[in-house]
Amino acid sequence: MNGIWELAEFLQTRSGAADTQLMEKLRLHVVDTIGAWISATQTVEGKALIAFRDAMRAKRQAAARNLEDDLAIHCALVRLSEIDDIHLRSMTTPGSIAVPAALTLAVGLPNVNSADVAPAMLAGYEAMTRLGLAIDGPKALYRGIWPTYFGAGFATAAVAARLLRLSQSQSAHALALALTMASPSVGQHHAATTARWFSVGNAARNGLTAALAAQAGFTADLEILQSRLFPEVYGVEPDIAVMADHGAFLFPDVSIKPWCAARQTMAATQGLREILQAGVRAGDITEITVYVPPPHLKMINHGITPGDRASFLTSLPYQLALAALQTARLAGLDLAAEAPLSSLQAFMARVKVIADDALLADYPARWPARIVAEAVSDRHELHVDCIPGDPERPFTPTDVETKFRHFAGPVLGDSTAKILQSSLASFPSRDSISSLMRDLSNVMAGVMG
Q: Which superfamily does CATH assign the domain made up of 4-258+395-447 to?
């Protein structure tokens, strides 16, 4: 057992055996991901990515569409949105790679059978989440290895192998080669204008290269997970049993994010939302103490830096202030433009964040928080284990549609209903996939004028 061979067998056989309930969940995640994809085109970073792709094409004087470029940019756009789905136990955001990779390759590769698109998506989800679990993603992240970025090529290789109908042997070599090409430093970009998104897109591109190379007969080290590479170079002892498990799908455990923020901030923010919904006025709150899992503390206990979108996404005090001052609606993707900074900072000053070991009981399967809000005349305390969008509190089709309209609607305008319906029907036939991808291409072209 080397983990790679067994995973290749699982992806080639089981990904096409999903039941009706699993397929309905996948359909909702596809719609959710496409909404993230569209809305990300309006961010400063999204526009920069699209402009970069177009500039590279112009320099090469390439008249034809470049599949690798499209794959890279599409995955990058979904990931930068920060409203893509997430698997807590593996600390991965698998839909940001699996869905755009499958849709992009379905129309870009020759002779793809539309019946393989949904299984290819599931293969990408399983490859990403299993790799994240195998390297203990929650622990790896806080050591500097971002599991989604590290596994982007691995997930794309799984998607491409399924669409190309590679043999089990070819699929195993595609996965092994993608893992060989992966870098633990992808995602390590902390400047205000970040190349993180470009890097994750490029990592996804490598997965396609790996699959095409395997199809052409190139081989890789199938024993890579058993070699000394991971423990001696990366400091990780991979759990091969997780990769080799032919049991249940991990996809049912993937959560949909209800709003735009780092998921580590959301349990506490949900708690404040529920306290406010119970009738407490934000203006009456004099102090908030939030207890969070210790691994999350450093990431979310900080202020904000104008011009640095990531600081707004990951600042728990900021997210609480935004929830308190914008209870009527969800924020957009450009969080810095949501409310007057002075009023937000005044509320942020009332927030204290503390690590609590007691919250690790079910971690990382759950990312809980306990919030204590001191008001003028009383005290309110709430423990939140799960938030809307988690498997324990699943989004309904109506919830997904509402989120799509909120984030993608301002971009699409009168075309919102049409593209929403196209997204719901995104893998029954090659024609419907091609039509959807043309619509998405027109959205990106419209961004650049």
A: 2-methylcitrate dehydratase PrpD (1.10.4100.10)
Percent with pLDDT over 90 in the chain: 67
Tokens 């024993």 locate to 223
pLDDT tens, residue by residue, 58-67: 766 544 458 8
DSSP state string for 398-429: HHHHHHHHHHHHHHHGGGHHHHHHHHHTSSS-
What residue type is assigned to position 63 of the chain? A
Strands 351-355 and 285-292: parallel
Domain ranges of the chain: 4-258+395-447, 263-384
Whether 4-258+395-447 and 263-384 share one fold: the answer is no
- Residue 264, CA distances (Å) to 79, 194, 386 in order: 16, 20, 12
pLDDT band of 435, cuts 50, 70, 90: confident
- CATH of the domain spanning 263-384: 3.30.1330.120
DSSP string across 273-294: HHHHHTT--GGGEEEEEEEE-G
Residue 359 has pLDDT above 80, yes or no: yes
284-339 residue pLDDT tens: 999 999 999 999 999 999 999 887 888 899 999 999 999 998 765 667 777 666 66
**55 CB neighbour count, 10 Å cutoff:** 10
HEC readout, 218-268: CCCCCCHHHCCHHHHHHCCCCCHHHHHCCCCCCHHHCECCCCCCCHHHHHH
d(CA 350, CA 380): 15
